[in-house]
Write a structure and sequence with these properties.
heterodimer; A: 116 residues; mainly beta; Immunoglobulin-like; six-stranded mixed sheet; five-stranded antiparallel sheet; globular; B: 114 residues; seven-stranded mixed sheet; four-stranded antiparallel sheet; 0% helix
Chain lengths: 116, 114
């Protein structure tokens, strides 16, 4: 079956440190991955995505790394700020049952706490 | 200016009741979704509609019935509520069903069944 999981359920860092959030996925056919951030009381918000023909993609203070060999995804946040405190989810696009529509399969989520 | 809105934000009800959650998006998107997030923050898709047509139905009990009166709205009706239905329900929308269309999520509806 499909599963996308995170190695660390919680992570606490100091403001200004770099944070790394890891994720493992099981569907080797997946070719598109997304990181979402969910702040308390809000819905998930898109951070960054990566296609399987890439192994690295950079955004503003965030970098996503994809290692297809070991089916591993990571999100790096540079100079972590208190506003980065949230639950982070990795997700993969998976084809629904008999083809056609795509659906998001989310990992378990990891809570990042940034201490001032 | 809210892109995806849901009502109500909180819903507390007794077991056995029937309730509805409403969702509206003003992004002009064709595809809308319902997700359920449990107490452990696990987020799982329930339904998806594209142009008012049901395209994803993920082994959800038939007590849950989505309805899309138009492309901008997707409502979720739940019959005979059970304790296990307590969760946060998120609506989302995207431009289409293809792989690279970003999904925009609403603020969630916290359902508590007593």
């Amino acid at each position: 079956g499909e599963s996308v999981g995170l190695h660390l359920p919680t992570l606490s860092v100091q403001e200004g440190d770099n944070s790394i959030i890891n994720c493992a996925y099981s569907n080797s056919a997946s070719d598109y991955f997304i990181w979402y951030k969910q702040e308390s009381g809000k819905g998930p918000q898109f951070i960054i995505d990566i296609r399987s023909n890439m192994d690295k993609r950079q955004g503003q203070r965030v970098t996503v790394l994809l290692n297809k060999t070991v089916k591993h995804l990571s999100l790096q946040i540079a100079a972590t700020q208190p506003g980065d405190s949230a639950v982070y989810f990795c997700a993969e696009k998976s084809r629904y049952r008999w083809g056609g529509s795509e659906k998001l399969v989310f990992g378990k989520g990891m809570k990042l706490t940034v201490n001032p | 200016d809210t892109a995806v809105s849901q009502t109500p934000k909180y819903l507390v009800t007794q077991m056995g009741n029937d309730k509805s959650i409403k969702c509206e998006q003003n992004l002009g998107h064709d595809t809308m979704y319902w997700y359920k997030q449990d107490s452990k923050k696990f987020l799982k898709i329930m339904f998806s509609y594209n142009n008012k047509e049901l395209i994803i139905n993920e082994t959800v009990p038939n007590r849950f019935s989505p309805k899309s009166p138009d492309k901008a709205h997707l409502n979720l009706h739940i019959n005979s509520l059970e304790l296990g239905d307590s969760a946060v329900y998120f609506c989302a929308s995207s431009r289409g069903t293809s792989e690279y269309n970003e999904q925009f999520f609403g603020p969630g509806t916290r359902l508590t069944v007593l």
